Amino acid sequence: MSKYYEYRHTVGFEETNMVGNVYYVNYLRWQGRCREMFLKDRAPAVLADLQQDLKLFTLRVDCEFFAELAAFDELCIRMRLTELAQTQVQFGFDYVRLDESGETLVARGSQRVACMRGPNTRTIPARVPEALAKALQPYA
């Protein structure tokens, strides 16, 4: 098994700017999409918990760019666990362009998430759900 969860994506015109390269905010959107698909594929119990009172608050995101992407580039966003604390999780993301010459790392990012519970006006930190911690183990 790989040490990362992989989400594949084909860049569309709507994700590019007037110059023709991918607009930076899309890299952050792809981090979120990768995380969502991980939950759907590997931790569906957490999705059910989100329908109750669990909340995943994104505390920090970042992305460092190494090369540009353009419309119709094939891309893999590879997510791995970089830290698992009592109430927070940190993910690392590699953005890899796939083409006939192989793989090229085009960006690298990270995201820190806090687990919270309670009503919107009184949320408090909560332990990382066991189902999430277990689903993340192979990606540490």
Which labels suit this protein?
140 residues; alpha+beta; 6 strands
Structure description:
This protein is an alpha+beta fold and 140 residues long. The termini are close together. It contains 3 helices and 6 strands. Strand 5 and strand 6 form a beta hairpin. Strands 1, 2, 3, 4, 5 and 6 form a 6-stranded antiparallel β-sheet that branches. The model has no long low-confidence stretch (mean pLDDT 96). The protein has helices at 25-42, 44-50, 130-136, and strands at residues 5-10, 54-65, 74-84, 88-99, 102-117, 124-125. The protein is elongated and about 45 Å long.
How would you summarize what this structure contains?
This protein has three helices and six strands; from the N terminus they run βααβββββα. By secondary structure, the chain is an alpha+beta fold.
Number of strands: 6
Shape estimate:
elongated
Tell me, rounded to a whole number, the average pLDDT. 96
Largest sheet: 6 strands, antiparallel
Q: What is the secondary structure topology, with strand pairs?
A:
Blueprint (H helix, E strand, L loop, with lengths): L4 E6 L14 H18 L1 H7 L3 E12 L8 E11 L3 E12 L2 E16 L6 E2 L4 H7 L4
Antiparallel strand pairs: 1-3, 2-5, 3-4, 4-5, 5-6
Helix pairs in contact: 1-2
